[in-house]
Predict the structure.
Amino acid sequence: MSKAMKKIQVTIGLFILSTVLAVSNLAATEHSDPLPSWQEGASKQAIINFVNDVTKRNSPNFVEKNARIATFDNDGTLWAEQPIYAQLMFAIERIYTLAPQYPQWQTQQPFAKLLKGDVKGALSHNENAVNDIVMAANTGMTDEVYTHIVQQWFAKAKNPSTQQLYSNMVYQPMLELIAYLQHNAFKTYIVSGGGIQFIRAWSEQVYAIPPEQVIGSTMKRSYQHQGTKKIIMREAEMDFYNNKNNKVIAINSHIGRRPIAAFGNSDGDMQMLNYVTDGKGARLGMIIHHTDAKREWAYDRTSQIGHLSEGLDKAKEKNWQIVDMKNEWKTIYPVIPK
Amino acid sequence: MSKAMKKIQVTIGLFILSTVLAVSNLAATEHSDPLPSWQEGASKQAIINFVNDVTKRNSPNFVEKNARIATFDNDGTLWAEQPIYAQLMFAIERIYTLAPQYPQWQTQQPFAKLLKGDVKGALSHNENAVNDIVMAANTGMTDEVYTHIVQQWFAKAKNPSTQQLYSNMVYQPMLELIAYLQHNAFKTYIVSGGGIQFIRAWSEQVYAIPPEQVIGSTMKRSYQHQGTKKIIMREAEMDFYNNKNNKVIAINSHIGRRPIAAFGNSDGDMQMLNYVTDGKGARLGMIIHHTDAKREWAYDRTSQIGHLSEGLDKAKEKNWQIVDMKNEWKTIYPVIPK
């Protein structure tokens, strides 16, 4: 055999070997646990059964790839919402940053209380207090400037209780769930009561969910002249509050077909779960129940943030799966390499 | 050489051969004309230059796949809008269908004129006439029922001038353009003044654009009880009219980042073109100019449908490419196999 022939044989051999390895590697991936942070139990099994049911070609509940749509609430479902919503923390911190430009805030409520450090007093000053703070912090700039401000804040801001970066306060089991669904050709959407552009500023980096798959509350915006350019200006007026029935309307506006899986944690999500699980065929409705006072927070019926009562009452009748965080999640937060 | 060895050699040989064929086949696809219905000329060259510019890794204007977003107006850009918008024809025909259930329409304008066959008189009866007809035809049913009604109509309805199915009135060059962009990892969106659910009912079948990538005008909807179920009801009130500046706002709401290419045909699209081409890096703004009275319709500055004046005046300054249909499109409509 000539040297050239030997070289070709070796090349072919290596080629076949690498192909075999690639195929067996794929098989290993297919069979490895897609949800390692989930305890073996009812919730994990419900997820896996559902995904198998809608993705196996021979299943009576098979769903074509383009109709595999899953919707997730954000606060309390994908990341921690205690002791105060992240976007409200953003707003408060932005008021502190902006204060030197607005000397009138020193005497104007609710800003005056806030600037004296009385957060609770400021937020409960009157029924408009939260709105006034949110508007002052989230509007009056262009859409591009706003996105930049949020990203700068997000890179450094920390949860006031845990002193962890917000990107470390997402739930590892939910990151695995999103990735598992995406791997099975699902389009994963966030459907949040939070601001749509606030979440979009970091959703791709944190959840691998692109801006166009984020649905949230919106401020009025105008497309207007600024010098020789035209810009999108964020106006200080609410346009659409994405909660309860409005989550269903927003899904209809943005997606235009009924999702087949929905995940939430508070009563504001139950209309979405109802809409999704009311559809024909295999459906998955899942409620994240905050039962872990030690590793996270335990709250439901009496909490103002993430109030959950209707969901607990109706879950059985509606066949919604309740995730008991304390017992069903091995880990809560991701271990981020430093 | 043993029989087994020979078999292995033949198998390997066939495997390599098929790999080589697959690769060369791919190369052939890469080099074949992606836009066969476009004449060689300025517009075709502008498209190909732009796509190369944003997709070649070594290009200074390279754009990551997730940011390759293109937006298309629908009426007059992707399909014919003369002699009357398709959705208005749908509305008129639906009034005829519904008439037996509404005897009061026999004397109530603008319906009475319509039912006597005076379409022009009905539409111009007063300033609310078009709105009254559109509302009566497009609302008052659930979202699912509406989609079904539109699909049934679409399967059989014909353009009143050409007597062709509406699916045969789409522009073949634009179908090729959409496919070419999709092949290059673009997300292609429709951004239309037409009704969002009206277009979604057939956009996937006709354009290979899924419902979630269709943006349009919306009616108010409510999520309400109907017996033991809850349904999305289409209310007889305009929610959002997606035209001019609103197209930019809607892109901001639905997509959340600036597209890099936009295609329109009337002054209602110029704000969208402006927004898209105002961005940094390579941008493509393109105006379909209806110049072909013989194969289609010729109209621009004096037409009520598809009025185009600002676009023609500003194109040069804005570096927007004007497509001269008569001279730049080899074919207009697709040849649909019967």
